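Journal club side-thread
Mid-discussion, someone asked how the predicted structure for our own chain would compare to the paper's figures. Pasting it here so we can look after the session.
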Amino acid sequence: MSSYKSALRHHARDLAPLATLLVLILFFSVFTSGFFDLYTFSSVLKQASTRAIVATGLTFVLLCAEIDLSVALVATLAACQMGVLYKWILDTGPAVLSAAAPDGTFTVSLAGALLVLILPVLTGLFVGLLNGLLTVWSRLPSFIITLAMMEIARGLASYLTKGAQYPDMPGVLPKAANEGIFLGSSFELPYSVFVCGGLLLAAHIVLTYTRFGRYVYMTGGNREAARLAGVRTGFVVVVCLAICGMTAGLGGLMNAGWLNSAGVNQNQHLLLEAIACVVLGGTSLFGGEGGIKNTLIGVLAFTVLDVGLGYVTWVDEFLRRSVMGLVLLAALLLNGQLAKIRQD
């Protein structure tokens, strides 16, 4: 009987995020005008893409019972680095990175575009790697290390841009973030869905079917037991934080493409949104519970809430962030209650 109750509670925890998503869709469909249509669905997919990319890396970190508070500013740093580097290539860059256009202006060559797109992602990877190494070496909580790294990334982004906005970037970014494949007259499947979908699939395979994925869950579930079982828990933490930094850098580029500019004031709410997405999906803040499928549901639920609130006329635009904060608070409280259930 006790095993039956335990299984029932386990399935209830798994189904709760999906039920939340369905309730949100039903609520906005019934109580708002124009929400339930293909255009809204396309908008949800566009806005969900950047959040899904960043939340994917954050899922790895939370699963091993750590946290990364620097993701939003690492994303901003990557976007600013991309914008500054692109402008430098156009203005004074070497010939191998630029090419003359028929009208006498200069454009960025394929090699230059690859450099502009790859280097910021590698910067994010490096910052995440540094977060992991410092966390393991110092034995300080990761939130302290990443909080300091957040300010470092903010300062570097400000130094690079001097507060300026950079609208020039490789054309593939705004195309991938804002355009898509039309499937009918009113539905556009964004190209960004293929980017984040591929990333989510790869992350799911790693966490579900590889030895490293099992080590991530073991490290988050009981680090001391994992260490005694021969798992290099420090290595797992470093790799997870490095993955998180890399996805933050990629998410920053995608968001810059969506906004058609790069600047230091972007991604102000990305940390809250990414954490909310992961937690709403049911991934535990205490490690060892959850996964990419949970994160996908959480991203969709949060984005449906964000887009749906735009259709609610009685919610002031300036109150939307407060509503988002309340949703995150409720998710955190629910997460804590589920953690107690797991211990019973």
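Post-session note: The chain has a mean pLDDT of 85.
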